[in-house]
Amino acid sequence: MKTLKELTLLDKFLFDEVMDIPEAHEAALRIILGDENLRLLSISQTEKELRTAPWLRSIRLDVYSVDENMRIYNTEAQKNQKTDLLRRSRFYQSVMDSSLLKPGDESFNLLNDTFTIMITPFDLFGEGKYCYTFHARCDENPALILKDGATRIFLNTRGTNAEEVSEELIQFLNYMEQSALNVDIPDTNKNLLKIHKHVRQIKASEEMGVKFMQRWEEEAMLKREGREEGHSKGLTEGKISIIRFQFLTKHKTPELIAEDLGLPLEFVQKLCDLLVTHPKKSDAELVDLL
């Protein structure tokens, strides 16, 4: 278990608490988008839940905000590498879009511009870039962009193309991994200094220390309950073999597997994560890791 002071901005608790502060989230967006004129209109919302229908899957956005031009931002920090991040970004985009129009709105031009931003300590695309920005393009003419107002950005804290991005962005992405109290930040990076100020305040707060411990205890309890429930439902090596086949061969999501097998999602998700990080381990060895 990490202490609060040891957390980095890639850790969900610290990321959510810092980006819940409008000044900090605004500073991060200015760095990422290179727009010093960006001004957030609303207070950032962390863990914002959206659902298109009661019987369909909801999404829980890390940090959701709107700027004065009514552009919408969803900013996520994803510390663990999972196989579904690209399609997850697609699903998040679609559910966000479905919530933007009211009954009676006649034109789809009323849809807000949206930015889905995912920050990771790994390279999803293997091109060595710090930043990958995606818009829909025409296959027959790649220069022709589909101007539908949707932008997806994937940031890699371990990029190598320093000559293609701003120094401010590189410093921010390095800070995402370090986030230490004594980190040296250049005076020229005013936005990162703002973020660091709030990181220091949160790490020094006794109230936040208690909140972090309570959150950790809650998650530990849920994991214990998940393990107990998973074993009570007969999670044997045979079950692991079935999950391995459905996940790696059939490419089913953990959610679908959990639903099909009647197993706790948290348990199935953990096993799928282990299958990604330890693909060569036997079913018996995976049981010991659960």
TrEMBL record:
Record-linked NCBIfam families: T_den_put_tspse
Protein name, as recorded: Rpn family recombination-promoting nuclease/putative transposase
InterPro entries listed in its UniProt record: RpnA
Pfam families, per the entry: PDDEXK_2 (PF12784)
Species of the source: Hominiventricola aquisgranensis
